[in-house]
Amino acid sequence: MAVLNLVPHNTNFDFIGKRKITFSIVIVSTLIFMFSLLTKGLNYGIDFKGGVVMEVRMPSAPNIHQLRQQLEPLKLGEVAIQEFGSPQDLMIKFENAEGNTNIPETAVSSIKAILGDGVEYRKIETVGPKVGDEMVHNGLMAVLYALLGIMIYVAFRFEWRFGLCAIIALGHDCFLILGMYSLFPLEFNETAITAILITAGYSINDTIVVLDRIRENIKRCRKITLVEILNKSINETLSRTILTVVTTFLSVLALFLFGGKVIAVFVLPILISLIIGALSSIFVASPLLLYFNVKHGKALDEEEERIAKSLETEGRYEASVPKQFADDGIIED
Amino acid sequence: MLFGFSQARKITTIIICLAGILLCLPNMVNEETAEKLPSWLQNKVSLGLDLRGGSHIQLEVDLKAVNAEFLNNLLADVRSSLRKENIGYLNLRVERQESSPTLLFSLRDPTHQNKINNIIKKIDSSLLTSISPDGQVTITVDPIVAKNRSKQIIEQSIEVIRRRIDETGTKEPTIIRQGADRIIVQLPGVDDPQEVKKILGQTAKMAFHMVDSGAQNTGHAGPDSTMLEYVRNAEEGGHKIAVRNQISVSGEHLVDAQATTDAQTGQIGVALRFNNIGARKFAEISANNIGRQFAVVLDGKVLTAPVFRSAIPNGNAEISGGFRSIKEANELALLLRAGSLPAPLKIVEERTVGPSLGADSIHDGRNATVIAFLLVSVFMFLGYSTFGFFANIALIFNMVLLFAGLSLLQATLTLPGIAGIAMTIGMAVDANVLIYERIKEEIRAGTSALAAIEAGFERAMTTIIDSNLTTLIAAAVLYEFGSGPIRGFAVTTAIGISVSMFTALSVTKLITAWWFKNKQIQTLPI
Asked: Of chain A residues 254-283, which have a CB less than 8 A from chain B?
């Protein structure tokens, strides 16, 4: 036996029956994020807006207030100076002035002159606004193409209804993580787009496992309702869902805690979205199937008979039904 | 044959695992030992700029400027052709508009318009002419020709950039084209790119022009000359010089340029040597213009404007004066040797990572990956005991094969790439979890141990393939659209996921089969 029985099995939770409540929660949370996106918008980083980020290690802990005053005459607009990791490390950040299409080349050297000698420049990034525009465009296209590609694949492997439900759940997750960037103003930069795509990758992975079980149970269990099939499938895959969320969460947590500051900022939204990704498979993708008239039970029997009849004449029926599903009409309780 | 595991598949699985270990080796040993390895084992993972430190510079090639210059050079031809045909014109000019530069003029007599097309085509067949009824002529460059020319210009620019950077002694630079009008330059180990930027920022187009002495006296540009800034020094009044638009000898004909210091006066200069064509032209011009002033023009500014004292027959010339230091002369000599850029470059993005940050990132990333591995291993063992242990062995092979794949592809490992590896650890065991949960279900349904294992692997397979292929689609899109570091993430995730399918479905299965054969137990420790 396993050392610990980490996750429950043989659960029998009614996930789908309470769909009115769960849908309400999904809708309300989506509305909150949407409201935040519409009112606050996104906190675009210099990747998208264009500007300068410098990460410097000072010879001794500097007086940030004084430094800010020293940088004032450079007229760089709003310059953010903050401690980064240790009192000696600073992050200096400012955006390109509106309408200024040139990289503030002289700005970097002026700042270097003010900071003086003995400073270690750990990172200097200058991005022109045009490049930023392209990144926004490419980033959005990437998310859209990923969604489209996944939908086509699922529609091809399952059927279009499953594909649609999967993609709605996936879109919901992507939107939620985008809203997270807005609500807890995290800097939205190129790595944020990556974080969204990672969420998409994980979330769809999880959704497919649940949908796959639903597909299988629809074929096997002809005598129960679709709601029962959905509940049964979610419960059967629940232990796997929990285990995989935990292992992935643990490895991302390791990144968050020990991977350094840059990585920590990158993976924080991913940590949260792992859980959202798993929840959306259960509470968004699965119950949505109820509304798409998925063929099951008697309707499926009839359809299969119809197909069988048309195939019988060609003598191909045996091959069309997988052996493992051919018997089994009863649920084991 | 257990679990439908044929002898052939068993051997293939073992061979792949051993090959994986072998391909990882070059990454583990130090450089000296690595050099002794056979050439087919030399491939290793290279580190991205964010990990090893260095500069990433994105340049935009100003293609519009090139087209405008091309039209500008045609102005004189257009003027003389129109005069020859006795066609009156007004307001002949080149305008740099947003879309593309155009050459414009209006006809004094609109009835001349049917002749215009032929005249222009004779000057350059790639020109497109459109004439409005009131006699306004608009000439543009054929977009297809312009596109081909642009492509050529970018290729040429990359060549020149490479030569210039090689001259500076930077090791292993990467110079690649990006999109329609961009070039990316990556310089590993360069943590202060000022020098390089200065070198890349100059077009270094040099040419010898005659000075338009008539215009020079009036102080206003003549019809075929331009007032150019004289860089020599401000003390001399910083006055401008009227330089003829026509190029007498172009810098293209240069074969060598070296900084020199006059032994007696200490004056700094650059010695030039022309090829045969250049030398002949130079001899001709100098012989015909003795006593006249000419100008050495670099990037639209007059470097020096001496007088031809005698004919210069051998193609050796020297520019002197105008240099403040030997370093400046050296830099010009470098630029002239490397050739001029066909179009001006603008830096649109620059990312520099210092060596200490890169080292910290590697250190942190390695730690995080090891900890992720330990956490997941412990969890899997607690969850599935013996089977969890099998999954952990598969996970080790997953990492080995991931690095083997990265080495084989000579992929670049970036910081997000390390994050990808750590995440792969978490997601890779998913395949095992799917299999084991199936086995558990089968056991609970009363199936025998052997049948449960067989069914577990069998039934989990489609789920594993479907769920991983969809994730692979996301990774592929990420690769297609992402920039350098993010591509690194996509590559590690994609290889990690593909490998996890293999390790779960083959390696774990093989281990389980061996174990089961030797134990022959009835109750599974799962």
From this structure: 254-255, 257-260, 262-263, 266-267, 270
* A9 in B contact zone (CB under 8 Å): yes
| Chosen CATH of A51-127 out of 3.30.70.3400, 3.30.360.10, 3.30.565.10, 3.40.50.300 | 3.30.70.3400
Same domain (yes/no): B257, B141: no
Question: Beta partners for A89?
Answer: A57
- Closest chain B residue to A140 measured between Cα atoms? B481
Edge-first strand listing for the sheet containing A79-84: A79-84, A86-95, A51-57, A120-127, B345-353, B54-61, B182-188, B174-178
The answer to whether B160 and B24 are in contact (CB under 8 A) is no
Give contacts of A120 with chain B, Cβ < 8 Å: 354, 356
Query: Please, which residues have CB within 8 angstroms of residue B413's CB and are 6 or more apart in sequence?
Result: B45, B46, B47, B48, B51, B406, B488, B492
Is A81 within 8 Å of A89 (Cβ atoms)? no
Nearest CB neighbour to B474, from listed A55, A150, A253: A150
**Does B470 reach chain A within 8 Å, measured CB to CB?**
yes
DSSP result, B503-518? IIIIIHHHHHHHHHHH
ipTM score assigned to the predicted complex = 0.82
B314: in domain: yes
Most A CBs within 10 A among B196, B349, B489, hence the mutation to make, goes to: B349
Q: Do B361 and A262 touch (CB under 8 A)?
A: yes
Q: What is the CATH number of domain A132-292?
A: 1.20.1640.10
Instruction: Count CB atoms within 10 A of the CB of residue B129.
Output: 16
Is the CB of A236 inside 8 Å of chain B's CB atoms? yes
Quick check: is B490 in a domain?
A: yes
Domain boundary residue, one of B129, B146, B163: B146
Q: Domain boundary at B293, B325, B350, which?
A: B350
- B91-145 pLDDT per residue, tens: 888 887 766 788 888 888 877 777 888 888 888 888 888 888 888 888 888 888 8
| A106, A122, A134, B482, B501 from B353: Cα distances, Å | 19, 6, 23, 19, 36
Task: With CA atoms as reference, report the closest residue to A29 among A148, A165, A178.
Answer: A178
Residue of A245, A250, A281 to mutate, testing the B interface (most B Cβ within 10 Å of its Cβ): A250
Residue A196 contacts B, CB cutoff 8 Å: no
3-state SS, one letter per residue, for B225-263: EEEEEECCCCCCCCCEEEEECCCCEEHHHEEEEEEEECC
Instruction: Report the C-alpha gap between B499 and B24 in whole angstroms.
Output: 14
**pLDDT, position B393:** 94
**Exposed/middle/buried for B146, CB within 10 Å: 0-12, 13-18, 19+?**
buried
d(Cα A313, Cα A320) in Å, to the nearest integer?
A: 13
Quick one: pLDDT at residue A25? 92
Q: Which domain holds residue B379?
A: 7-53+354-519
Note whether A204 and A173 are within 8 A (CB).
no
Alpha-carbon gap: B57 to the closest alpha carbon of chain A (Å): 9
| B467 with A248: Cβ contact below 8 A | no
DSSP category for residue B111: G
Q: What is the DSSP letter of B466?
A: H
- Based on the domain organization, do B405 and B463 belong to the same domain? yes
The CATH number for B375's domain is 1.20.1640.10
Q: Taking CB atoms and an 8 Å limit, are B477 and A236 in contact across chains?
A: no
**Chain B residues inside the 8 Å CB shell of A149:** 473-474, 476-477
Q: What is the average pLDDT across B247-273?
A: 84
Is A159 in the B-facing interface, judged by CB distances under 8 Å?
no
- Residue A332 — very low, low, confident or very high, per pLDDT cuts 50/70/90? very low
What's the farthest any 2 CA atoms get from each other in chain B? Answer: 109
**Chain A CA closest to residue B493:** A198
Residue B173 falls inside a structural domain: no
